Automatic annotation (TrEMBL), chain A:
<dbReference type="Pfam" id="PF02405">
    <property type="entry name" value="MlaE"/>
</dbReference>
<keyword id="KW-1003">Cell membrane</keyword>
<dbReference type="InterPro" id="IPR030802">
    <property type="entry name" value="Permease_MalE"/>
</dbReference>
<feature type="transmembrane region" description="Helical">
    <location>
        <begin position="269"/>
        <end position="290"/>
    </location>
</feature>
<keyword id="KW-0472">Membrane</keyword>
<protein>
    <submittedName>
        <fullName>ABC transporter permease</fullName>
    </submittedName>
</protein>
<keyword id="KW-1133">Transmembrane helix</keyword>
<feature type="transmembrane region" description="Helical">
    <location>
        <begin position="350"/>
        <end position="369"/>
    </location>
</feature>
<keyword id="KW-0997">Cell inner membrane</keyword>
From TrEMBL, chain B:
<keyword id="KW-0067">ATP-binding</keyword>
<feature type="domain" description="ABC transporter">
    <location>
        <begin position="9"/>
        <end position="246"/>
    </location>
</feature>
<dbReference type="InterPro" id="IPR027417">
    <property type="entry name" value="P-loop_NTPase"/>
</dbReference>
<dbReference type="InterPro" id="IPR003439">
    <property type="entry name" value="ABC_transporter-like_ATP-bd"/>
</dbReference>
<dbReference type="Pfam" id="PF00005">
    <property type="entry name" value="ABC_tran"/>
</dbReference>
<keyword id="KW-0547">Nucleotide-binding</keyword>
<keyword id="KW-0813">Transport</keyword>
<dbReference type="InterPro" id="IPR003593">
    <property type="entry name" value="AAA+_ATPase"/>
</dbReference>
<dbReference type="GO" id="GO:0005524">
    <property type="term" value="F:ATP binding"/>
</dbReference>
Length: 373, 261
């Protein structure tokens, strides 16, 4: 470059018109833009005192002079270095068309209304899709059951390990702690009535009927539904799902069934773990704080708690597991190819599956109570 | 162009290993200001690893790399960031931010590093997008709505956002149709001449090599076999180079380049 001025660029009013002085580069862009805005549309501009020039400076010069004039820069500023001329011509060429296309503007209340409508319609559509997906899953489950050659034992076992076995410690720990809390709560309330012994019944009832399965299901919804969504979403982004389809295979059979079955097997087991460890937590509190020894705790369990409470709790587990797995997989299929979308759908799958689990549990509690089970 | 001008990148005795697998061993390479250096080599010869080492994404196991006179790995974080603004990288698959639209993708470094207002930065971004040949409507699209060729162009616009001195391109024409690839080659030459860029171009595309590169570096046997003008490289006595440049594809590209001249 012939000009080696290193001072900040300015637009100066000289005797013979405007002069572009100094470096017209990115660090000076904001100030130069204001200067250019003041004199917008000039006929002549002296470029001889110009120092360094980059794209941002070239953009300003083109805005000042108009693309057509800058395209002929060789005619009116032949002294300008060849690279700067080339840069100006390239930028002017790019700016021949107007680039500022305003986004379509909408009356804000109308936009809010449209947004609300879209959300409601989306919610309805989501449930519709879920029902459809449950249908597809059940259909391919039934058709697969009849053909043992198409059972995917390896995938099933791998999923069992990930969603079942690996979840045992956290489920056990959490239910143990909640069991202890429930026992403390019971003790506090029941002490006033002199009925602390019923703490045993409280812990047993709550864990057998509700907390065992509910806590395990909520944990799996957070732990496994999100994993399913992220796995399948990432596979979709990488076109792996399309590859499965073009190989003549079914993504539902290959990806969804092993996951759904693994969840339906592992959640009842985890529920059992949750019940036992919750009651263990209760028993510990009873023996340490309430002077109910373990032997007495077990004796009361055996005498007072009928088996049907255990069965009521356990019966809900496969249903919850099915819903959690199906929601997790479906959200994965719905994810579009971007990181943002995978994140959104992972959130949605956890929220939906926890919501569904609690809603169904409430309905089931109502049902079982009316039936007197 | 500059011939033996100022060196912008200087790689000396570079060693890169992955476990026991040695990718580079005592590799030397220079890139001069204003030139387009094509880097070729068979699959797995470490072209992309070399690029990642130079831009500082992979710490070399031994050797020194000086970019614009500085060793990236030894700079404190703020100086390193300042140096990194002086080069632009186009990744093989574009690596556009999928949560932002194109003008936000290009405006991001401008807003973060130059302190421009969002409106100014996005205006500049739209010019850059037009500069790489994208239509004005594309500025508000998100990357997942683009074709492969548009992604490459948009990624180039982002690489050029800060008016870099050195541009690293990882297979920019891979996956483009011949017309799109030819347009990309011409665009690269125009921008090099206009912005005075030095370009490190990893490519498999023989047409790109013949139509744009000032020098070609051949990677083989864990080092740079030769880094010279294309005519010299072609004449080098090496089996891989013979197969590469004098195979049917190489001959076709060479003839096409001669016809153009």
């Amino acid at each position: 470059m012939t000009h080696t001025a290193t001072h900040a660029g300015t637009l100066e009013q000289g005797d013979e018109g405007l002069r572009a002085v100094g470096d017209w580069t990115l660090p000076h862009h904001s100030r130069l833009r204001r200067e250019v805005a003041k004199v917008r549309g000039t006929e002549t501009l002296d470029l001889t005192p110009l120092g360094r020039l980059d794209t941002s400076g070239a953009v300003l010069l083109v805005e000042l002079l108009g693309a057509q004039r800058v395209l002929r820069v060789g005619d009116w500023a032949p002294a300008l270095p060849a690279e700067q001329q080339a840069l100006l011509v390239a930028v002017a060429d790019a700016m021949r068309e107007p680039l500022d296309i305003a986004p379509p503007s909408v009356f804000p209340p109308l936009a809010a209304l449209a947004d609300l409508g879209q959300r409601v319609a989306g919610l309805g559509h989501q449930q519709f899709q879920l029902i459809g997906f449950i249908g597809v899953t059940l259909a391919s489950l039934v058709s697969g059951l009849l053909r043992p050659r198409r059972w995917r034992i390896t995938a099933l076992v791998a999923q069992l390990q990930q969603s079942g076995l690996n979840a045992i410690p956290i489920v056990a720990l959490l239910t143990f702690l909640v069991g202890a809390v429930v026992a403390f709560l019971g003790a506090t309330v029941l002490r006033d009535f002199g009925a602390t012994i019923y703490t045993v019944n409280l812990v047993a009832y709550s864990f057998l009927r509700e907390f065992g399965v509910l806590l395990a299901a909520i944990l799996l919804a957070g732990r496994t539904a999100s994993a399913f969504t992220a796995q399948i979403g990432a596979m979709k982004a990488n076109e792996e799902l399309d590859a499965i389809r073009t190989l003549g295979l079914s993504p539902v059979e290959l990806l969804v069934l092993p996951r759904v079955l693994a969840m339906m097997i592992s959640l009842p087991i985890l529920t059992l773990v949750g019940m036992l460890s919750g009651m263990l937590g209760g028993a510990l509190v009873c023996s340490l704080a309430l002077e109910i020894p373990l032997a007495q705790f077990l004796a009361i369990l055996q005498r007072d708690i009928p088996l049907n409470h255990f069965l009521v709790g356990l019966a809900k587990a496969p249903l919850f597991a099915f819903l959690i797995a199906v929601i997790g997989c479906l959200e994965g299929f719905k994810a579009a190819g971007s990181a943002q979308s995978v994140g959104e759908h992972t959130t949605s799958s956890v929220v939906q599956s926890i919501f569904m689990v609690i809603l169904l549990d409430a309905l089931a509690a109502l049902f079982f109570m009316e039936m007197g089970w | 162009m500059s011939g033996a001008g100022e060196t912008v990148i200087e790689v000396r005795d570079l060693v890169n290993r992955f476990g026991s697998h040695c990718v580079h061993e005592n590799l030397d390479l220079d890139i001069y200001r204003g030139e387009i250096l094509g880097v070729v080599g068979g699959s797995g010869t470490g072209k992309s690893v070399l690029l990642r080492s130079i831009v500082g994404l992979k710490r070399p196991d031994a050797g020194s790399i000086r970019v614009l006179g500085e060793d990236l790995q030894r700079l404190p974080a703020d100086e390193r960031s300042r140096l990194e603004r002086r080069f632009g990288v186009l990744f093989q698959r574009g690596a556009l931010f999928t949560s932002l639209n194109l003008q936000e993708n290009v405006a991001l470094p401008l807003i973060e590093h130059s302190g421009l207002t969002r409106a100014d930065a996005e205006h500049l971004a739209r010019v850059k997008l037009a500069l790489v040949g994208l239509p004005p409507q594309a500025a508000r699209l998100t990357p997942d709505a683009l074709s492969g060729g548009m992604v490459k162009r948009a990624a180039l616009a982002r690489a050029l956002a800060m008016d870099p001195e050195v541009l690293f391109l990882d297979e920019p024409t891979a996956g483009l149709d011949p017309i799109g690839a030819g347009a990309f080659d011409r665009l690269l030459l125009t921008l090099r001449d206009a912005l005075g860029l030095s370009v490190f171009l990893v490519t498999h595309d023989l047409d790109t090599l013949y139509s744009t590169c000032d020098r070609v570096a051949v990677l083989s046997d864990r080092r740079v076999l030769v880094a010279e003008r294309l005519a010299v490289v072609e004449a080098t006595d090496n089996e891989w180079i013979r197969d590469y440049f004098h195979g049917p594809r190489g001959r076709a590209a060479s003839q096409a380049a001669q016809r153009k001249e």
